[in-house]
User: Which sequence fits this backbone?
């Protein structure tokens, strides 16, 4: 299967739905209170419709497969995530552009979503590498990626100019197919608690 193919993924905790305009209302509520996160790209609530449109346009161009994250316990959409930097010929993809509402952080939501995305990448799309990237200063995200079992590949220094003009060092992690069974098991154990 192609990384960019529209698909709905679901487990007992979350449903990843192809991002659509009707997700914008819940997403605007979910984005409220995340303005302090200068080291990540969370849209302001009023900018959510434009961000949904941008991601959908990128999907149409083949560069991204965006999802809304629906928390099944509440029925609410609590964030966004994507397959991005899609390299179909080399079977390589990044899971990124992810953000989750404050009330859903450090819950079952992120590990459940990552389990679905990784399973789809490795088992559904035959990925040879799944990459995860974050800002050097985003210690919460780095810790979450490391808890997954991803290995740090390196740091891209001065990799990006942020909207406020600061320079971003990007930490790059990856998971390879032979690592996927242990990563899967770790996520399943976390979710069973």
Assistant:
């Amino acid at each position: 299967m192609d990384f960019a193919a529209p698909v709905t993924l679901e487990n007992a905790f979350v449903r990843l739905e192809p991002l659509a305009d009707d997700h914008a209302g819940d997403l605007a509520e979910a984005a409220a209170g995340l303005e302090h996160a200068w080291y990540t790209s969370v849209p302001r609530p009023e900018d959510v419709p434009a961000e949904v449109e941008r991601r959908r346009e990128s999907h149409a161009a083949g560069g991204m497969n965006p999802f809304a994250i629906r928390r099944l316990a509440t029925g609410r959409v609590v964030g966004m995530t994507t397959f991005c930097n899609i390299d179909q010929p080399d079977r390589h993809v990044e899971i990124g552009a992810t953000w989750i509402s404050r009330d859903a952080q450090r819950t079952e939501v992120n590990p459940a979503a990552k389990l679905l995305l990784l399973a789809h990448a490795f088992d559904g799309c035959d990925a040879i590498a799944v990459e995860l990237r974050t800002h050097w200063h985003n210690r919460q995200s780095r810790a979450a990626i490391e808890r997954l079992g991803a290995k740090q590949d390196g740091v891209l220094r001065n990799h990006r100019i942020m909207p406020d003009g600061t320079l971003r060092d990007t930490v790059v992690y990856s998971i390879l197919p032979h690592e996927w069974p242990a990563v899967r098991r770790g996520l399943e154990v976390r979710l069973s608690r």
Remarks:
- The radius of gyration is 16 Å.
- The helical segments are 24-31, 48-60, 109-124, 139-148, 180-192.
- The mean pLDDT is 94.
